[in-house]
Each structure stands twice: as structure tokens, then as C-alpha cells.
Amino acid sequence: MSTSKHIDKICCIITAVTFLLTILFMNAGKLGIQAVSAPVGYASRLFHTSTVHTIDIVMDDWDSFLANCTDEQYAECTVIIDGEAFRNVALRAKGNTSLTTVESYGNNRYSFKIEFDHYDNALNYHGLDKLCLNNIIQDNTYMKDYLTYQLMHDFDVDAPLCSYAYITVNGDDWGLYLAVEGVEEAFLQRNYGSDYGELYKPDSMNMGGGRGNGREFDMTNFELPQPSGHASPTQQAPPEPQMQQPPDHTMQSSDVSLIYTDEEFDSYANIFDNAKTDVTDSDKARLIESIRKLNSSEDISDIIDVDEVIRYFVVHNFVLNFDSYTGSMMHNYYLYEENGQLSMIPWDYNLAFGGFEDQTDAVTLVNYPIDTPVSGGTVDSRPMLAWIFSEEAYENLYHQYFAEFIAKYFENGRIDNMITSTEELIAPYVEQDPTKFCTYEEFKKGASTLKQFCLLRAESIQGQLDGTIPSTSEAQAQDTSALVDADGLSISDMGTMGDMGNIGGMGEMEHGHPPGNMEHNPPPGNMEHNSPPVDMPQGEPPEPPNQSFGR
Description:
Helices cover 32% and strands 12% of the residues. The protein is α+β, with helices and mostly antiparallel strands. The chain is globular and about 60 Å long.
């Protein structure tokens, strides 16, 4: 009888505690309890960076799919990732101008997007809903995207996971791609928990940036602007052919620049029409109010994730990606908003390191000023960057983080090891790649040039931080004597926007089989250079800083 009474008391206590925990869980945001990022299985599988993964696409009518790739229509297929099959998934080509560029090359090496949940909402790859397969176009190094994402992630910036994957189609070799985590629901849950905020990919409909965008934009009529820096005192870039300039609206969109206009939702159509989450009118009003405060440098610490955004721009400005928010097109970034606070998520760096504008002046690029890091505009025309220089405390923090970045990756040769080990990892796959846009020799030269560029860039930035090299374009134009000498560096060796690449690559193979005598579709574990890259994140990525949630 006594035992029964104790059991009843214990059951009552357990019930009460369970009820209290349920109330706390349901009201965590209101009570100020911080959520943590959600662990996911895909991070330690496909995005483990110690190996080159395998992805086999199985599709009944691949030739017909390729013929219609520019329509960006989904087709059903099976994908086999590292030997694990996923049926009834959707595949389409992806890209902006790169989609038509591939077509113009006469090469079918498109970038692809896999939607695991397109036909079946319950289907995913160990928690991953969307996967991008980037074709590494106009990047002879094969490393620009990969290296930038690794640097972003390792420098505490919320960035998509990525790894290399060797693609086969119906068992035949297709090529080495970069597998990138889609910045959608799985990404948001991984970084911000289940109660995440709002996600946007601001982009002018005329310039591209997503499915269906950019179809009316003709790259052949686009004149690339020069960066806001200066010409090298010892090397002059050859004159570019004059091309017809498109109307201003194709290059300038105030909302994509995050410039405040008024309170009307329609004034920010290039943001709201490209929302990646379901947004309400209250969400729109909250974002507009944050943009208003951003433009007036008001309550910056409340409406900007200061630490995150400064770290983003440190890495971004080091790698010099002008096909971005700091370039003339002002796209290729994600805007994340939560409780009125804004941050940037990096995207698309295959034209970093000077590749976007086909710059031949290595001296200008190596010494590109960190305090005026905008091409085709001014710092003031980019409010998400301008606030850093609006107050001395923020500018000092920017310089402090830049100093930490240089120390972290260059004082002990870490960046050298990262590039070397990655090159060794992927070299056999690049050599085997039957659809590559460059030759194997051009890849080796590009990787070597990338390493040299990074070392010289770090040397210049260290000089800009300690005051021995001017850190603004105006000051550099007035005094070129202290600039780091990079005349012997060929930027085009890393691949550029105008690089037509190895367009004959597809013609060198028959029925998808690669030239040469390498084993057909060798498993990564049997490749010679399959050791983990030094200093690359291994396994499950480290937890990002805690974020607060609730709307």
C-alpha cells in the first residue's frame, strides 16, 4: 500500500515536470531562451571535406534533358550519393548568364540543382532539401568557391557547406563539380534552429540571380566597369572593345543595394519577389524599417548583426568578388532578417580574385583598398557596407578582424597548406574530368597563381592595416610607391569572365568516357591524393554562435 502511494506521488511529479517543460519549450522565445543550431546528418556525410564524393545521376533520357537545360525545367531522376540511392528526386540546370554561357561554349557542362523534396515532401538527403552542383565555370583553379566558403565558415560566418563531388551520368564519367548546400530551409534550420527568421536573395530581374532571372539580359551588350581602384604605375591594361551600354536600370537597383526609398512595399520588389521564406506584410514592414535605420546609421547594433556582417566583409573583401553586392551588379548574396536584425550570407564566388571584370592589372587587384572595396560605385552607395565606416568603433573592429584574419591564415602558412592540400585532393579528378573548361596544365597553373595571389594580397592588407600602404583608392592613386609589386602575376591564369575555356572538352570523349587511360569512375578511396586537406573543417562543422529566435 505504501509503495503504491509513492508511485502515485512520483507519477504526479513526472507529469507536472513534463507539463512545465512543455510550457517552457513552447514559449522559449518569449522567455528569452536562446535556441541553438540544429545538428543534421548531411553535414558529416556529403559535406565531409576529406574526400571527393561520388554522385551518379540516373535518368532515362539524359540527351533530351540536356537539350532543354536552358528552360530550367525539372526532370525526375535517381541520384546515388556515395553509393546511397535516392529515387524520385528533381533535377534542373541552374545559373544566370552562366547558363547561356555554357550553351554558347558548345559544352553541356551545366550547373545543376537537385530538389529532394520536389515530388515528395518527405524526401531529403539526411535532412538536406536542396543541393547545388556547381560546374566550376571560368575558374581554372577549381578552388575559388570552395576556398571562400571554407574561409567564411572558419571565420565564423554562416556560410553554405560544400565539398567536391565527381559526377557520373548513368554510370559514365561527367566531371568534377562542387557540391554546395542550398541556402534554403535545411540551411536555415542548421544555422538558426527551427524558429528561424526571413531569408531573401535580392536581385534585379534584369540581371539574373535565380530561376527565370536574367533571360532578357544579353551579356554581349554589357560593358564591364573598371574597379574603383587605379591603374598600375608599371602596367596598363589593354583597352577593352567598346560595347553598347544597357539602360541604367539593368545595373542599378536601389532596393538590391539596400537603399531606403520609402515605406511602399512595391519599392522593394527585387527583395520581396525573391523571398525564400513565406513573408507577411508585417515581415515586409519590419525589413523596410531596418533598411531605413541602416541608411541613416540609426540603432546599428539593433538592426545589424555587427560581428557577423563585419566578418563577412573581411573575407569578402579579401577575395575580391565583384560579381556581388560590392560590384556593379549588386547581387549574389542572401539577406537574412530576424527580429529586425540583418546579416549577409555569402553566395557564388567562382569569379572572385579578379575574375569578374577580366582584370589584367595584378598590382591593382593585389593592393585593392580595404577601406574603399567597391567596384562600379562608392561605399556610400552600399549601405550594408557603409555603416562600418560611419563610426570609428565599427571601422576599428573591421580593421581588428582583418588583422585577425591575416594572422590566422598567413602567419603560419595555413593558407598555403589549405590550397596545396586541396589541389592534391582534386588533381586526379581534374585530370580525369572529361568536360572541364580548362586543361589540366591550366588547372595546375591556376592553383599556383591562386596561392601567389593570396600571399601578395595578405602582404598588401597588412601594409594597409599598419599604415605603410594607403587603404583607400584616392590615397593609392596619389601615392603608388608603397604598393606591393605583383607585376609578375597573371590574373587570367586563375580563369576570368572572358575565358572561353577548353570548349572542345566534350568532343574529346565518346559516350561520356574520358580520354586517357585512367580507370573508369574510380572510387575516391582508391585515388592517390585522398588525404584530408590540412586545416579544412572535418566531419560535423563546429556549432555557430547561439542565435535568438522568435518573431
